[in-house]
Design a protein that fits this description.
The protein is an alpha+beta fold. The protein is built from five helices and nine strands. The strands form three sheets. Strands 1-2-3-6-5 form a five-stranded mixed beta barrel.
Length: about 190
């Protein structure tokens, strides 16, 4: 009987260790394959396959999601040079969500002009990813009508990060375009 219990405990430990290694491998550079059988739905947890940049992710099914209410410096736009703090914003986003289950919350619009889902993104522990990136100075508040229901939260988070010189606010020159959009200086 004692051998059976010992065997069961060892088997359970090995199972838990294997599951943990699987989770770690998903978070590492090896990307899981795209699974088109999984459907993206607001309010239903789904796995983040990879981070595209500071404000865009790709889900396990290949769908892309653009975070709403905020904007990060550009890193992958072929029409723009790489901007100050773009790599840091993308890396912070990667730390937060890559290989993690997230839940998408809709505001008004379903998709942007590029066919990406538009969403407020939450981790399973309740972390509001969009807001966290603004609070920590990795992103600007960016109200883009009609998806502006949380604009006051984003504006307050940006004001706090700016006053503390957090993230891009302490590392970059920030300017506003003719449309009022915040941008950082480009890297040379």
């Amino acid at each position: 009987m004692r051998n059976k219990i010992l065997f069961s405990v060892v088997a359970l430990v090995l199972l838990i260790a294997s599951a943990w290694l699987l989770v770690l491998s998903l978070r590492a550079s090896a990307l899981p394959p795209i699974d088109h059988s999984i459907k993206t739905q607001y309010g239903v947890p789904i796995l983040v396959r990879r981070v595209i940049d500071g404000d865009t992710i790709e889900l396990i099914n290949g769908d892309r999601v653009r975070y709403i209410g905020m904007d990060t410096p550009e890193e992958v736009d072929p029409d723009k040079p790489v901007q100050c703090f773009a790599a840091e914003g993308a890396e912070k986003n990667r730390e937060l969500v890559q290989g993690e289950m997230v839940t998408l919350q809709k505001d008004v619009s379903h998709y942007d002009l590029h066919g990406r889902w538009l969403a407020f993104v939450y981790l399973t522990d309740g972390t509001f990813v969009n807001l966290a990136l603004v609070k920590e100075g990795f992103a600007f508040s960016y109200p883009y009508p009609p998806d502006i229901s949380k604009a006051p939260e984003f504006a307050a988070a940006e004001a706090e990060a700016r006053s503390e010189n957090d993230g891009l606010w302490g590392a970059c020159s920030v300017y506003h375009t003719s449309t009022g959009r915040s941008q950082t200086n480009t890297l040379h």
